[in-house]
Write a structure and sequence with these properties.
The chain has 13 helices and two strands; from the N terminus they run E-E-H-H-H-H-H-H-H-H-H-H-H-H-H. Strands 1-2 form a two-stranded antiparallel ribbon. It is mainly alpha-helical.
């Protein structure tokens, strides 16, 4: 059964009643209700938020229904077109997704979030050159709120193409722009491993663990390095920590497999 969200849920009702000094009991009139009159833009924002909520619930038809209502009320808002495009992308309709995302960019050529969506689509289509172009376009806007994500995505593409030096640079920039963006730290450590720089990788994993004490992947990968170095005491120490954080996660399950293989105690 669908959970319906109504625009009335965001309408503010103000109750007021007249009072006056009085010497004897009088019958008070019923309170007068004032309903705020919303502009088209405010109504559009309300429909937009409802549409996003339905998308988060996985109800794509209702999400599109409210997003199109928002578009009708405010046809010059690029974020509405971008969200319609993203919703079509989730639906699997790439043609419509590109159509509406490009409409968003026609209204606002600096709209970084729209470029990020186009980059994601290009990656899915296997067009890495175009994806990189869109990620770079997203980064051209100095007001883009999530540059670390674009740098991280660029690093992954460069790594796929064998450009490890450039990949490391992008990861470093991702961390500079958001020192709490854990995926960039992990990917940078993995690149150091790929280059055979295990001591540097271990040092970085220790830093990651200090900064993100519940990040299981860091413990797991550090344990694997020690396993390869035949340092079983340290390998056991870190694999057990990985397991204890969350035994049921993917990394907890991987840790359990290693523990069983090497006879480590839980």
């Amino acid at each position: 059964m669908r959970k319906f969200i109504t625009l009335s849920s965001i309408v503010l009702i103000l109750n007021s009643c007249a009072t006056a000094p009085q010497e004897r009991k009088q019958i008070q009139p019923p309170p007068v209700e004032e309903t705020k009159t919303f502009t088209k833009k405010e109504k559009a924002d309300g429909f937009y938020k409802i549409g996003v909520s339905y998308l988060q619930l996985g109800d794509i038809p209702l999400a599109l229904n409210y997003l199109f209502k928002a578009k009708e009320l405010n046809p010059e808002d690029p974020k509405i077109y971008n969200m319609i495009g993203y919703t079509f992308y989730v639906r699997g309709d790439i043609k419509q997704a590109k159509k509406y995302i490009n409409k968003a960019l026609k209204i606002d050529p600096k709209f970084s979030e729209a470029y990020m969506n186009l980059a994601t689509i290009a990656e899915e289509e296997g067009n890495l050159k175009e994806a990189k172009k869109y990620y770079m376009k997203a980064l051209e806007n100095p007001l883009f709120l999530n540059p670390e994500v674009a740098y991280y995505k660029l690093a992954i593409i460069e790594e796929k193409e064998g450009n490890l030096t450039l990949a490391k640079r992008h990861l470093t920039l991702a961390i500079r722009n958001n020192i709490d963006f854990a995926p960039a730290y992990i990917e940078l450590a993995k690149l150091l491993e790929k280059e055979g720089k295990n001591e540097e990788a271990k040092e970085l994993y220790y830093r990651i663990i200090k900064r993100f004490p519940n990040l299981q992947e860091a413990y797991y990968r550090l344990a694997v390095i020690y396993l390869n170095e035949k340092n079983l005491p340290l390998a056991e120490k870190f694999i057990r920590k990985c397991y204890k954080i969350n035994p049921d996660s993917i990394w907890g399950i991987k840790a359990q497999e290693v523990m069983a293989k090497y006879g480590f105690k839980k």
